[in-house]
């Protein structure tokens, strides 16, 4: 378990988690619940200019996609593209 800054910034990761193989290089983030994950991805999308695709619910027989009520046309197009690739 790493704090976000230690997970993505190498110099901080070396200080906070010496000996960790993923500190400063993490590319998967696990949040304690749906609300925390939702808050984090919306901050990255809206303030950081990131493009968010999904969410994609996995573990079912077929992929399941759930669009936010606040999604844009681009969000819908990206989700349809991913769904068609996974079908």
- Total beta-strand segments: 2
* Basic shape: elongated
Beta-strand content bin: under 5%
Helix content: 40-55%
Given helix and strand content, the structural type is mainly alpha
Radius of gyration: 16 Å
The number of domains is: 2
Note the total helix count.
Answer: 4
Low-confidence segments: none
| End-to-end distance | 34 Å
The overall pLDDT, averaged over residues, is 88
Order of helices and strands: HHHEEH
Largest sheet: 2 strands, antiparallel
Strand order of the largest sheet: 1-2
Provide structural commentary.
A hairpin with a 6-residue loop joins strand 1 and strand 2 (64-65). The chain has four helices and two strands, in the order αααββα. 5% of the residues are buried. The chain is elongated, with a radius of gyration of 16 Å. A two-stranded antiparallel ribbon has the order 1-2. Helices cover 45% and strands 5% of the residues. The protein is mainly alpha-helical.
Features:
single chain, 87 residues, mainly alpha, 2 domains, two-stranded antiparallel sheet, elongated
Brief write-up:
With 87 residues, the protein is mainly α. Helix content is 45%, strand content 5%.
Task: Give the topology.
Elements: H1 4-8, H2 10-16, H3 34-46, E1 56-57, E2 64-65, H4 73-86
Antiparallel strand pairs: 1-2
């Amino acid at each position: 378990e790493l704090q976000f800054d230690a997970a993505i910034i190498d110099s901080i990761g070396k200080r906070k988690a010496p000996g960790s193989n993923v500190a400063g290089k993490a590319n998967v983030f696990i949040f304690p619940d749906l609300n925390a994950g939702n808050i984090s991805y919306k901050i990255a999308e809206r303030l950081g200019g990131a493009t968010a695709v999904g969410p994609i619910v996995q573990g079912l027989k077929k992929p399941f996609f759930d669009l936010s009520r606040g999604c844009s046309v681009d969000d819908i197009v990206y989700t349809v593209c991913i769904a068609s690739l996974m079908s």
